From TrEMBL:
GO molecular function: 3-hydroxybutyrate dehydrogenase activity
Name of the featured protein: 3-hydroxybutyrate dehydrogenase
Source organism of the structure: Streptomyces filamentosus
InterPro entries: 3-OHbutyrate_DH, NAD(P)-bd_dom_sf, Sc_DH/Rdtase_CS, SDR, SDR_fam
One GO term of the biological process aspect: monocarboxylic acid metabolic process
Length: 273
């Protein structure tokens, strides 16, 4: 008879639920697209947990408002004025980060035959190539310390396509693949990489889509929300930025240490169809 095998030792017991408040004191987080919307909510939530947040955006006024709004939180918010099309600067900005939140994005709604090639290039640069460079810049420090969290703000459009959004859909599908590759490479080093994939979030990016969607589909603007944006969602409302920020924070918690290479979907039942 063969000798009985021994199961691997169980990990140390997690704290009691009453002690699960996440303390990120001493951790440095980089959040891109931090001047508004989801990025702003993530920067404030991470700072509320004690992190030193490098808030990256090209909107100076929004960064100033963010820093003012973070006053009095346990952590800090340091504005970093940066256009992510400067890829070398993006990679340098991520050096030394313990947590990286790739959030910055832009959108244009046009049929493929009318989609400006220069805009397609910019969308892919900001939403796929820049995250690659940011991850590349952050990993050496994460690997050296044996701990790191990469959270990529994807979208339901990283899992499903929609008409008239060729650049955005292509970028988000690519980001999902990049995130999985980072997860596989990072696992031996204590680094997790995941996507958070929400449906339509109440942000300026979504609000600016309404006129374009109305023109593309040939309907009045007041019908866009119910007939286009929320048509496939079981929950008929927009996601709030703060809800997305809580999902991002969870992926940085000890309770999420075994979650990597996947997407946390906040879509109100969209992909259940």
């Amino acid at each position: 008879m063969s000798a009985p095998t021994t199961a691997p030792a169980a990990p140390a017991a997690l704290p009691h639920p009453a002690a699960l408040a996440l303390d990120l004191a001493g951790r440095t987080a980089v959040v891109t697209g931090a001047a508004g919307g989801i990025g702003r909510a993530c920067a404030l939530r991470l700072a509320a947990a004690g992190a030193r947040v490098r808030a990256v955006d090209r909107a100076a006024e929004g960064l100033e408002e963010l820093a003012a709004g973070a006053a009095g939180l346990p952590g800090t918010v340091e504005p970093r004025l940066l256009d992510l099309t400067d890829l070398d600067a993006a990679e340098e900005t991520a050096a030394g980060a313990d947590i990286l939140v790739n959030n910055a994005g832009l959108q244009l709604v046009r049929p493929l035959e009318d989609f400006p090639p220069e805009v397609f290039h910019t969308v892919l640069t900001v939403m796929l190539e820049a995250p690659f460079r940011l991850i590349r810049g952050a990993l050496p420090h994460m690997y050296a310390q044996g701990w790191g969290r990469v959270v990529n703000l994807s979208s339901v459009h990283g899992l499903r396509a929609s008409p008239f959004k060729s650049a955005y859909v292509a970028a988000k599908h690519g980001l999902e693949g990049l995130s999985k590759t980072a997860a596989l490479e990072g696992a031996p080093h204590g680094v997790t990489s995941n996507c958070v994939s929400p449906g339509y979030v109440r942000t300026p990016l979504v609000e600016r889509q309404v006129a374009d969607q109305a023109a593309a589909h040939g309907i009045p603007e007041e019908r866009v929300l119910t007939e286009i944006l929320l048509r496939d969602s079981a929950l008929k409302r927009l996601v709030e930025p703060e809800e997305v920020a809580e999902a991002v924070l969870y992926l940085c918690s000890p309770q999420a240490a075994f979650i990597t290479g996947t997407s946390l979907v906040l879509d109100g039942g969209w992909t259940a169809h």
